[in-house]
Amino acid sequence: MKYLATPLANVIARVTWNQHMRLPPILKRLIPPLRKVARIYLLVILVIAALQRYLIYQPTRDTEQALLSEARNLGVEPWRDRSGQIIGWKSGRKLTGPAKNRLVVFQGNAGFALHRLHFIEGFEHLENGHLWEVYLFEYPGYGARPGTKSEASFKKAGTEAIQSLQAEDSRSLYLLGESLGSGMACAMAHDFSDAVSGVFLVTPFTRLADAGEVHFPFLPVKLILRDHWDNVTALAPYRKPVAVLLAEKDTVVPMEIGKRLFQATNEPKRVWIMPGVDHNELDIAPQLPWWQEVSDFLLQRNAESGRD
Q1: Around Cβ 252, how many Cβ atoms within 10 Å?
Q2: What is the pTM of this model?
Q3: Are 45 and 72 contained in the same domain?
Q4: How far apart are CA 181 and CA 175, in angstroms?
Q5: How far is CA 165 from the centre of its chain?
Q6: Which residues span the domain enclosing 233?
Q7: Residue 271: CB partners within 8 Å, gap ≥ 6?
Q8: Could you give phi then psi for residue 299, rounded to 5 degrees?
Q9: Same domain as 101, residue 22
Q10: 239-291 confidence digits (pLDDT tens)
Q11: How many Å apart are CA 134 and CA 101, to the nearest integer?
Q12: Tens of pLDDT along 188-225?
């Protein structure tokens, strides 16, 4: 915070020095309240900077036993790493053979992975489950998973999860990033560009700072932000299918921010805009045609680039 405190301290010092200059009485009366406002503003910046990860990451926590019980009731089973630790969840559906493709879901900033069961239902509904096997990734510090809630921690855990799937078999791998999870999906697509066959982004942002400035326009967000989640830079070299789903009335990540990310990505790409809905109001019923359309585009089944 020294980069912010020093300029503000200089301003306060200059204002104090100006008190000794010959100023009109009305200006002299303004100096004390201005100094007080500057100090309060600096305090607000310091507090929000200190608490920023509590504002960004809002997990729901529970015990592993409780989550395993809930998962059984929902028909899903734990996704474990090579050490046996639960790192997410996957469908418990038993098929005659494995699905052709794998999809890893990186959720938004709130709740835990089991709250995203609709992504399993939507994609595994297609071709009776033979097309997609969906994995719901659990962030460190979410659900029952231990760990730190930060960009570095999430990326490390995501890297280990992708490597674990690569070691299992050679089926095609796709990524889905929802809201904050778009940062994870874009980062993993960048780091595993040869292995990741396509990316689906739901209500994404360009950079976390751009979304932050919408909600805190009075703060120097870019200066105080620790976790940057720069999706534009991450996707710049990526040249495989990128599907984007936006909410027209999004008040959390305004649609225009998502459009800017879409415009910055390389072909092949396609965008879907759901009219009249906010960030958390997307129509996710599995029978809706957009699930099939997104699937076909990711798999490049007669897909066309452009906007719906």
Answers
A1: 18
A2: 0.88
A3: no
A4: 10
A5: 21
A6: 59-307
A7: 243, 244, 245, 246, 259, 262, 306, 307, 308
A8: -85, 0
A9: no
A10: 999 999 999 999 999 999 999 999 999 999 999 999 999 999 999 999 999 99
A11: 9
A12: 999 999 999 999 999 999 999 999 999 999 999 999 99
